[in-house]
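User: I'm new to structure prediction. If I give you an amino acid sequence, what do you actually give back? Let's try with this one:
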Amino acid sequence: MNEYQSVRLNMVESQVRPNKVTDPAILDALLAVPRERFVPESLRGIAYVDEDVPLGGGRYLMEPMVFARLLQFAEIGSGDGVLDVGCALGYSAAVLARIARRVVAVEDDKGLLPRARALLADVGNVTLVETPLAGGCPQHASYDVILLEGAVGSVPAAIAEQLAEGGRLVTVLYSAQGMGKAVLMTRRHGIIGQRIIFDAGTPLLPGFAPQPEFVF
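Assistant: Good question. You get back a string of structure tokens that encode the predicted 3D arrangement of the chain. For your 216 residues, that looks like this:
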């Protein structure tokens, strides 16, 4: 076992399992995907810390525990199609690809896209699409699961509409007061419901900031 394999195992055993992530498919995927490859080379030494890792341009690799718990609540099955909004350098897409049938990963940051393409080139069930994040990817809809890779002020209607009947959307909602709450949204009989699932201090996804609230 090399150094990175050792810290990857430690991430799963000390950060992920203790936070109620028990799905074997998720744990196996986290152990299999080399997280250190999906951060800038200068930051590989901190790729497995229990915090968000900066990727540049206001983008972050999500904290392992938060990412894993979102996947747990999404209840991803082996036959599911997943939309990964804001895949950055592709780590989330690579993990999802080991759990789901297909993954559509969308990204619009031109500084991240070339490396994401290279890192995901050999992952056969991932389609990487360059497109504005707030629009999702309607040409490949609908999706059983949608993951937004960062905190958002609200979920754009254009993305929510791409959720299949019975589908699950997970993200972190960030209020104007600075509080982050992970949420699970589900579509039942055409109606999307929402519930808070845990607290999360995830950084905002650029372009998804909450709108100012006016007080009279």
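You can read the tokens as a compact description of the fold. Here is one thing that stands out. The radius of gyration is 16 Å.
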